[in-house]
Design a protein that fits this description.
With about 525 residues, the protein is mainly α. The protein is built from 19 helices and twelve strands. Strands 2-1-12 form a three-stranded mixed beta sheet. A three-stranded antiparallel beta sheet has the order 6-8-9. A two-stranded parallel sheet has the order 3-4.
Length: about 525
């Protein structure tokens, strides 16, 4: 017997714009119902939709037979190469970075790798969110599974154990230059393999060795190159990018929806959304945005009325052009990260068929740094234009009361939420300054150009969180302003949406603590599940 309750949740279909509240009560009597709960790591293309499905449905991970074979063959090849060849191979029997010319004796190769992990675990700052740590583990497992890294099978399976048992390493935001891979964050990701460092046990942080003992897991004894394979890589930047894309697509949709409410609340002229306008400048995102605004407002009495100004401010009139440009940016960044998710980014790389080991630079995060900076700018712009719509709504224009409240003067109404939005927009402008234009020489000059992609990643994450707050403030204002258009109604879609919203945040008839309303609005937006929110890959 399954009794699944999803009350007060809201399911959107991004294509049909259908909204409903739903409760599921499913009973299975005779035939048991089994859902696929395992994702097999293989050479099949890993997509954003696949990662979303793994996370949303809490799938466990396992290695395909293909991946097991690739890992074993690579490891055996490397061990044979070390036994038969005394030639220095970077990171395998040499030091690291500027110490690449220091030869390491065979009996110290395991100690070399363990020292590497411990010495590089120098992260500081805020803790990386657990959702992003999960993606880091997934992407590291995927990259090692291709068989170009030379690691033991036991090392990869232990990472899978961590993922499946929700043993998430404690990782810090600061420390990576995004050049030799995300060295410091990935060192913290790897420490628990050795029984060192800390992990999450539920919401508590505990010593990793205690969790290993609890699960009867022996610490991994790293072999040649394994520490380097674990630390070289872009999984910190990549995980942040994946998270920002997944949430960015959702917020892009909600930005259009909330803008549509503001358009009706401000009694805007609908001609700027006419398809003819966009056919003569057919940027993909622009066309899609105009279509979506018209779909959201289909059937609106306010939109159909004729008491319109000839032109509206740009923050309303140019929604397709501005929102659309951000959509096109999401598309570009998506393509970049899709490539990265399916890549090998450690060093050196082992090519069995060609019988060679090559030291290269696939760990360099420049493609990701540029993409993350671009995405941060695009998300910041969505927040910027949103705040301008909020400002227009409270300005006492278009027969709306000043600050959207009765008895302005006695009541300050929605004066200060706009201040808050403006403050956050200003912070986003600062955060949108590109990290990738900077570089600092490291490792005694050996690593003389770095991407700063990790800083781009954490900045983009903060811009994304800020955007959600800015949109919450616009929704708070737009829903209030729309009430002053009564008895005229918006579209049935928007009216249903606002009916659900009003259960959480009632109309403001006189001054009250609006910080609570903003927080409730944020929770309301977070609760949404949007079907088909990701584009076709």
């Amino acid at each position: 017997l399954f009794d699944l309750h999803c009350e007060n949740s809201f399911l959107f279909n991004a294509k049909s714009n259908f909204i409903k509240t739903f409760t599921l009560n499913c009973t299975f009597a005779e035939q048991p119902f089994f859902m696929e709960t395992i994702h097999y790591i293989s050479s099949d293309l890993l997509t954003l939709a696949t990662i979303k499905d793994i996370l949303d449905t809490n799938k466990k991970l396992d290695l395909s037979e293909e991946a097991i074979l690739n890992i074993k063959k690579s490891h055996e090849y490397l061990q044979k190469k070390i036994r038969q060849n005394d030639t220095p191979i970077y990171g395998i029997n040499t030091g690291f970075g500027s110490l690449c010319d220091v030869k390491i004796s065979p009996e110290n190769l395991s100690k070399l790798q363990e020292n590497l992990v411990m010495s590089h675990a120098c992260g500081t700052g805020q803790l990386v969110p657990k959702d992003i740590v999960r993606v880091m583990l997934l992407l590291k497992i995927q990259s090692l599974s291709y068989g170009y890294s030379g690691v033991q099978l036991e090392t990869v399976t232990r990472l899978i154990d961590f993922y499946n048992h929700d043993v998430l390493p404690v990782i810090f935001e600061q420390g990576s230059l995004g050049a030799s891979g995300d060295l410091a964050p990935l060192a913290h990701l790897s420490l628990p393999l050795l029984g060192k460092g800390e992990v999450y046990n539920g919401d508590k942080i505990v010593a990793a060795d205690k969790v290993l003992k609890k699960n009867t897991w022996e610490p991994i004894v790293l072999q040649a190159k394994e520490g380097l394979a674990l630390l070289n890589g872009t999984q910190f930047m990549s995980a942040y990018g994946v998270y920002c894309l997944l949430k960015g697509y959702k917020l892009s949709y909600l930005t259009d929806l909330i803008a549509a409410i503001s358009i009706d609340a401000f009694n805007c002229n609908m001609s700027p959304y006419n398809a003819l306008v966009h056919m003569v400048r057919p940027h993909r995102g622009q066309v899609k945005t105009a279509e979506q605004i018209l779909e959201f407002l289909n059937g609106s009495e306010i939109a159909a009325s004729e008491d319109k100004k000839v032109q509206d401010p740009y923050s309303f009139r140019c929604v397709p052009q501005v929102h659309g440009a951000s959509k096109d940016t999401l598309h570009f960044v998506h393509r970049t990260f899709k490539t990265e998710m399916n890549s090998v980014t450690d060093n050196p790389n082992i090519f069995i068929k060609e019988d060679t080991i090559i030291s290269g630079g696939n760990f360099h995060g420049q493609p990701l740094a540029l993409a993350l900076d671009y995405l941060a700018i695009a998300l910041a712009e969505l927040g910027s234009i949103s705040e301008r719509r909020t400002y227009q709504l409270i300005s006492g224009l278009r027969n709306l009361p000043a600050f959207l409240v009765d008895n302005p003067g006695l009541n300050s109404g929605f004066m200060i939420p706009q201040y808050t939005a403006a403050s956050i927009v200003s912070q986003n402008k600062q955060l949108a300054t590109p990290a990738s234009v900077d570089s600092i020489v490291s490792s005694n000059g050996q690593e003389d150009h770095v991407s700063m992609g990790a800083n781009a990643a954490t900045k983009c994450y903060k811009v994304l969180e800020n955007l959600e707050t800015i949109l919450s403030i616009e929704l708070l204002n737009a829903s209030q302003a729309l009430e002053f258009r009564r008895p005229k109604k918006s579209s049935s879609f928007i009216e249903t949406f606002l009916e659900s919203y009003r259960k959480e945040v009632p109309f403001v008839s006189e001054d009250r603590l609006l910080a609570l309303d903003i927080k409730k609005t944020q929770s309301f937006l977070k609760s949404f599940i949007i079907e088909n929110e990701l584009p076709f890959e």
